[in-house]
């Protein structure tokens, strides 16, 4: 259906557009102080208005284009008022306000950042502090609110750039976070046990390494050490690299754990042992000695108990759990993936605007 030729003379439409113009002008003043937050709050109000008008008004199929034309004419120097971006704003608003066609006021539930009835929630402060470009990447790659809210929170907590966000979207961080088999609940006090469990992943993605054919544990360790910046990015926020093969004098013997880290939030050392084979129960004996040695030699009275992380090629989860029950050291067991090469410049992995548009167009939406 063509655009209603009397739309320009429709008093309801003109009044609404006039109010939007006042809202935008007011927001432009505030944006000088808090550009992103105020802009996103404006987008949110616009998204709500657009969706409401879409349900109640009878202005014809092209009214969203007409709205864009009116706003761009009034604010020629302001980005984000194109027909395309208004469509994104509508998609964004709908995405966070419906779940299986049932409206869920995800963002509007203030002051309660806990999950209730498995509905992911996020405070306004966090939600509106994420840049608009990040929001577009997230809704283009997340099909459910739980996953999207996870990446929104991580973006704010860790100060992720778009490139870093895209890297973790691409490597499915949401599905891997907190999945390592561990015995932390039994051996660590809260809240350290819960934080430690959420800190570890399964599997770890080592696609940035260039290992060909058969390789040994020493080569895997050296590869991670040479790429320690990317390894730290994969490990997550809070890990500080202490060293590889750090000598620990145990009586008359010296032991050399593969990798030693200190976690700033857990306030403890983390010993990482690498295995290029399937997990075996006896692997924990060696790692347990390293953990105990660090507790005796490195750990300060103000530090929390050292934890161990065994990263192996594959594992039987039941066997891993049984093995953990037989040890008194807090240890997590994960696998690693080494299936593809990551380009030198993560930026090259950023999707083009065409890619984002294609993904967004696939999302469920309503016609103009």
Keywords:
7-stranded mixed β-sheet, 368 residues, elongated, alpha/beta
Describe the protein.
This protein is α/β, with parallel strands linked by helices. It has 16 helices and 11 strands. It has helices at 11-31, 35-56, 63-74, 83-95, 124-127, 132-141, 145-158, 162-170, 173-176, 184-187, 192-199, 217-226, 228-235, 283-297, 317-325, 353-362, and strands spanning 98-99, 102-103, 181-182, 204-205, 239-244, 248-250, 253-255, 259-263, 268-278, 307-314, 331-337. The strands form 3 sheets. Strands 3, 4, 5, 8, 9, 10 and 11 form a 7-stranded mixed β-sheet that branches. The chain has a two-stranded antiparallel sheet with strand order 1-2. It has a two-stranded antiparallel sheet with strand order 6-7. A hairpin with a 4-residue loop joins strand 8 and strand 9 (268-278). Helix 6 runs parallel beside helix 8. The longest helix is centred in the N-terminal third of the chain and has 22 residues, at 35-56. The chain is elongated. Residues 100-104, 109-118 and 340-349 have low confidence and may be disordered.
Strand content is 5-15%
| Overall form | elongated
- Rg measurement, Å: 26 Å
Helix amount: 40-55%
Order of helices and strands: HHHHEEHHHHHEHHEHHEEEEEHEHEH
Mind summarizing the main beta sheet?
7 strands, mixed
Let me know the number of strands: 11
Number of distinct helices: 16
Q: Mean pLDDT score, rounded?
A: 84
Structural class: alpha/beta
Amino-to-carboxy terminus distance: 11 Å
- The oligomeric status of these chains comes to single chain
Stretches where pLDDT is under 50 for at least 5 consecutive residues are 100-104, 109-118, 340-349
């Amino acid at each position: 259906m063509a655009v209603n030729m009397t739309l320009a003379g429709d008093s309801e439409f003109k009044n609404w557009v006039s109010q939007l113009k006042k809202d935008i002008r007011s927001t432009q003043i505030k944006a000088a102080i808090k550009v992103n937050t105020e802009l996103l709050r404006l987008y949110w109000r616009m998204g709500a208005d657009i969706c409401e008008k879409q349900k109640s008004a009878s202005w014809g199929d092209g009214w969203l284009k007409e709205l864009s034309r009116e706003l761009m004419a009034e604010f020629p120097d302001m980005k984000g008022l194109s027909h395309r971006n208004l469509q994104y704003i509508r998609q964004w608003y709908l995405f966070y306000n419906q779940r299986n066609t049932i409206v869920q006021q995800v963002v509007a539930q203030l002051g309660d950042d806990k999950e209730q009835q498995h509905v992911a929630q996020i405070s306004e402060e966090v939600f509106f502090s994420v840049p608009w470009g990040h929001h577009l990447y997230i809704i283009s790659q997340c099909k459910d609110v739980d996953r999207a809210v996870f990446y929104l929170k991580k973006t704010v907590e860790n100060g992720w750039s778009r490139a870093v966000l895209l890297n973790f979207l691409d490597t499915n961080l949401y599905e891997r976070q907190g999945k390592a088999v561990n015995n932390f609940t039994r051996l660590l006090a809260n809240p350290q046990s819960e934080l430690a469990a959420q800190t570890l992943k399964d599997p770890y993605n080592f696609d940035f390494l260039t290992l060909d054919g058969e390789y040994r544990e020493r080569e895997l360790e050296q590869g991670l050490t040479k790429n320690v910046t990317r390894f730290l990015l994969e490990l997550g926020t809070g890990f500080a690299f202490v060293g590889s093969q750090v000598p620990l004098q145990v009586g008359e013997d010296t032991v050399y754990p593969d990798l030693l880290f200190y976690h700033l939030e857990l306030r403890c050392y983390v010993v990482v042992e690498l295995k290029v084979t399937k997990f075996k129960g006896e692997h924990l004996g060696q790692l347990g000695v390293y953990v105990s040695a660090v507790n005796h030699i490195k750990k300060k009275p103000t530090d929390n108990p050292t934890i161990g992380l065994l990263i192996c090629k594959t594992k039987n989860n039941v066997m891993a759990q049984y093995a953990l029950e037989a040890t008194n050291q807090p240890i997590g067991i994960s696998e690693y993936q080494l299936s593809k090469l990551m380009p030198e410049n993560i930026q090259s992995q950023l999707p083009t605007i065409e890619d984002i548009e294609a993904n967004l167009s696939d999302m469920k939406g309503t016609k103009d």
